[in-house]
Specification:
Chain A has 169 residues and is an alpha/beta fold. Chain A is built from 6 helices and 6 strands; from the N terminus they run E-H-E-E-H-E-H-H-E-H-E-H. Chain A has one domain (2-167): Rossmann fold, CATH 3.40.50.300. Chain B has helices spanning 2-14, 23-33, 35-70, 72-93, 95-116, 118-153, 157-167, 171-179, 210-228, 268-289, 299-310, 314-319, 328-362, 364-370, 410-413, and strands at 182-191, 197-202, 239-242, 245-251, 255-263, 455-459, 463-466, 475-479, 484-491, 494-500, 507-513, 517-519. The chains are: A alpha/beta (169), B alpha+beta (534). The complex binds guanosine-5'-triphosphate and magnesium ion.
């Protein structure tokens, strides 16, 4: 089985659940407490693509969201081959910012792959953003979108797998 | 006692005492009957008195004890002889139980004491701990000293002494340096921008997650560069320390090498890392640049990295130092070769002198001038006319011209150059000393004087001819004094000449400095060239 190492990023407004999605994917757990990421949080998780007989070791760079991303700087996006661009389904504004975040990575790597993720799908009664909205926002960046919940784990590993599949399509 | 007394009175009331018994008898009787009781009573009284005394003494003891309890020092003095043996016996008999019992109490009280009376505790412990530490340090130093002595006495000591001399330190300093502990735990090769781990070599057990370390290090380096290197500096973070471990980094264009080390690294360590990363870029530059995370694509670097890390021990670095030390062997052998050459040169001079001796002293008229000193022009510094070849008699000395290669007159008698067979015979006629300073043949020429006819000149001395107008260029041969030459071109201070070798009739060409020829006519402008070959 061939092994590949890839750097990917999680981008999006603050508090949308970037760290929670990563934590769910890497450690399979969820934390209600909000501890905003300062700077960068890096973790590693491997995915096996059975049909391609390959293992992809993902180095996941979870970057500070919102305005604080500017502090971190696009410098850290260098070498990233893809990103999960995340919004909070209960916060419309966070979804409007998705194209901006995606374009930051595109500036550094014009061949970057994207999956737009609407997070917190478990908060059904507060959702104000639909899958169609997110698809529309992702149109310029490959059009792959998905609703997920770091809390109940739905579609989390699928989002990462979707991104990896895009890289090896 | 009370009942007894009551008994007596009962007895008195029950017994009818005859009246005729007089008082005396009665008292005697009483004495007899009550003798025992009286004795008991007396003894009881005595006891009671004694009890009071005892009580008083007990009270005094209690007072004293309570005083002692209040006085910590007195209490310690009192209890010490009792408690100490008990505790020590207990510790010997059942150490674990003792520790379990008093551990928490002692721990807590130490914490409290430390919090409240830190200085007292320090003062109290200092004599014990200080002595222990001092002892330990003394022992370490003794070991250290022994190890240095061993090294200095070892067979490798001659080598070390030479090495130390070359490095400008004493042998013991070098040995001391070699004794400092140093170990490499891990080496990583990491891609610059992505932070992707390219390959790694682990030398000791380590908790480090190798996959992550590359990303972490890269992020830290990017952060440092971003924070401190904004103003156009290209500096990079090249060392990170945590606890007693350090990460030493050397960067290449596409990748950097990070070594996790403990202790003090040898001086050549950084150079070795730098050499490794630059050689890696020379050999595998494209592979490093195009690395896309395909682990197999760089597997071949793994062996190289482990081989390299095998050469990084302080002994190896000292034995094969890559900086100054690596030149040790060439420098020493170079010196030997030079010495040998010097010796050969000296012997050759001696030989030549003896050979020339008869020539010099055979015929005074001829001999003194028979060997014309060679005018050698190997610098483009214009030399004053006085430095021209003169008829200075032997001994063979170098010319007064500043020369890069001092060639003595001896060379004239041997072989000046292979291409000039017309060596001045030792019997050559004496040359008249060039009395007049020749005019530099670069006087501005009148346009009318410019002709296409060949411009001829005579050489003013024996001069080396060069292939190109450059003092450092290849010498093609020697032109002897007063050789008739034809001017082909003029370039700056240089003139290109053509002449015919008398013996062979071969036509030769070459460059000499202009001041070595005497022109019969001004140089026509057509000969002046902007470049040597135009
Ligand atoms: N209900 C629900 N809450 C979530 C979900 N994901 C994250 N949260 C909560 O949202 C808050 C923010 O989550 P984080 O993962 O820290 O958000 P972030 O995007 O990393 O935030 P920054 O680091 O500040 O950019 C936390 O209180 C999480 O518990 C989810 O799927 N459902
Ligand atoms: Mg976060």
């Amino acid at each position: 089985m061939k092994t590949f190492r890839k750097k990917i990023c999680l981008l999006g407004h603050y508090s949308v659940g970037k760290t929670s999605l990563t934590r769910r994917f890497v450690e399979d757990r969820f934390d209600e407490n909000y501890l905003s990421t300062i700077g960068i949080h890096i973790s590693k998780q491997s995915l096996v693509l059975k049909d391609k007989d390959m293992e992809v070791e993902l180095l996941i760079w979870d970057l500070a969201g919102g305005e604080r991303f500017a502090d971190v700087g696009p410098y850290y996006l260098r070498g990233a081959v893809g990103a999960l661009v995340v919004c909070d389904l209960t916060d419309a504004r966070s979804s409007w910012e998705m194209p901006y975040h995606a374009s930051q990575l595109r500036e550094v790597n014009k061949d970057a792959h994207f999956v737009f993720v609407g997070n917190k799908s478990d908060l059904t009664d507060q959702i104000v953003v639909s899958l169609d909205d997110i698809r529309r926002l992702s149109a310029d960046f490959g059009g792959q979108a998905l609703l997920a919940s770091a809390k109940d784990g739905s579609n989390v590993s699928e989002a990462f797998a979707m991104l990896v599949a895009q890289m090896y399509r | 006692m009370t009942s007894d007394v009551t008994g007596i009175s009962d007895w008195e009331s029950e017994i009818e005492i005859p009246e005729q018994l007089d008082e005396r008898m009665l008292s005697a009787l009483r004495f007899i009957i009550l003798r025992e009781e009286r004795a008991r009573l007396e003894s009881l009284e005595e006891q009671s008195a004694h009890s009071e005394e005892t009580l008083a003494s007990l009270e005094a003891t209690i007072d004293e004890l309570s005083n002692r309890l209040g006085d910590d020092r007195a209490l310690v003095d009192t209890l010490e002889p009792i408690v100490a043996p008990v505790i020590s016996r207990k510790i010997t008999e059942n150490r674990d139980e003792m520790a379990r019992t008093i551990g928490p109490v002692i721990g807590e009280s130490i914490r409290v004491q430390l919090r409240n009376n830190r200085e007292d505790i320090v003062d109290a412990l200092y004599p014990v701990i200080g002595e222990t530490v001092a002892k330990s340090v003394r022992e370490s130093f003794r070991e250290f000293q022994k190890s240095i002595d061993r090294q200095l006495r070892g067979p490798a000591n001659i080598g070390r002494t030479i090495q130390a001399q070359m490095k400008g330190v004493s042998a013991s300093e070098l040995a001391l340096r070699e004794s400092l502990p140093f170990s490499i735990n891990h080496i990583f090769l990491i891609q610059h921008d992505t932070g992707l781990l390219m390959t790694q070599h682990q030398l000791t057990d380590s908790e480090m997650p190798p996959g992550l370390i590359g990303s972490m290090l890269t992020a830290i380096r990017q952060f440092a560069h971003d924070s401190f290197g904004r103003h156009g500096t290209s500096s990079q973070l090249d060392e990170i320390q945590f606890g007693d471990e350090r990460i030493i980094i050397e960067s290449g264009q596409h990748a950097y090498v990070a070594a996790v080390v403990q202790g003090t690294e040898p001086t050549q360590f950084h150079t070795a890392l730098r050499d490794y990363i630059s050689n890696l870029h020379i050999e595998h530059g494209p592979a490093l640049r195009d690395y896309d995370g395909d682990v197999a694509s760089l597997e071949h670097l793994q062996t190289g990295l482990s081989d390299f890390s095998g050469t990084l021990s302080p002994e190896d670095l000292t034995a094969n130092p890559s900086s100054m030390g690596k030149y040790t062997v060439p420098v020493v052998s170079g010196c030997l070769v030079l010495m040998l050459l010097g010796l050969l040169g000296f012997m050759f001079c001696l030989y030549a002198t003896f050979k020339l001796w008869p020539l010099i002293f055979a015929d005074d008229n001829n001999s003194l001038t028979s060997v014309t000193p060679t005018a050698i022009v190997v610098t483009d510094t214009p030399s004053p006319p006085t430095v021209r070849p003169t008829n200075t008699p032997l001994p063979p000395t170098a010319t007064q011209e500043p020369t890069a290669t001092p060639i003595t007159a001896v060379s004239v008698t041997s072989e000046p150059a292979t291409e000039v067979p017309t060596v001045v015979p030792p019997t050559a006629t004496p040359e008249p000393p060039p009395s007049a300073t020749p005019e530099p043949a670069i006087a501005p020429t009148e346009p009318s004087q410019v002709t296409d006819a060949a411009v001829t000149a005579n050489t003013l001395g024996n001069v080396w001819v060069l292939e190109e107008p450059d003092v450092y260029d290849k010498r093609t041969g020697m032109l002897l004094k007063d050789t008739s030459v034809t001017l082909l071109a003029v370039y700056g201070d240089w003139v290109q000449l053509e002449w015919t070798v008398a013996e062979t009739g071969a036509v030769k060409q070459g460059w000499i400095l202009r001041r070595w020829i005497e022109l019969a006519q001004p140089i026509p402008e057509s000969l002046i060239t902007p470049t040597p070959n135009s």
